[in-house]
Design a protein that fits this description.
Layout lengths: L1 E9 L7 E7 L6 E7 L7 E10 L2 E11 L4 E7 L4 E6 L2 E6 L7 E7 L1 E9 L4
Antiparallel strand pairs: 1-6, 1-10, 2-3, 2-9, 3-4, 4-5, 6-7, 7-8
């Protein structure tokens, strides 16, 4: 899966602006993806998080901060056995999670308008 993510407009309120993509197994026991989230009202950078579940246990790890005005160029590759890599810009990290089997992809956003440009999801 690959795309360019861009924040178009952000709203204030009880729910912080956030967007992301998660790949998950059919039973939701194993999943992995990323989320950008504005940590506080008036913040000038999104927090970039790795999110998901490994054998039912939650994963939530901050990996970077991205200025609001920047676009996020990303690519995530995972095979059916749960092995792969994620790339944000020029940074690449290996991925290792449980068997995804025939899973699903979820794209989400809240409290704002985000654009996923050239979104491409290919099943192995």
């Amino acid at each position: 899966m690959k795309s360019i993510l861009r924040a178009v407009s952000l709203q204030s309120g009880r729910i912080v602006p956030n967007a992301g993509i998660v790949l998950s197994s059919a039973d939701n026991a194993n999943s992995l993806g990323f989320q950008i989230s504005l940590p506080a009202a008036g913040a000038q950078a999104f927090q970039l998080l790795l999110v998901g579940r490994a054998d039912g246990k939650p994963i939530r790890q901050a990996i970077a901060e991205v200025p609001i005005a920047n676009v996020i160029d990303f690519e995530m590759q995972v095979d059916a056995a749960g092995q792969g890599q994620v790339r944000f810009g020029t940074q690449v990290a290996p991925l290792r999670l449980g068997n995804l089997g025939l899973g699903k992809a979820t794209v989400f956003c809240g409290s704002g308008q985000f654009r996923f440009e050239n979104l491409e999801i290919v099943s192995p």
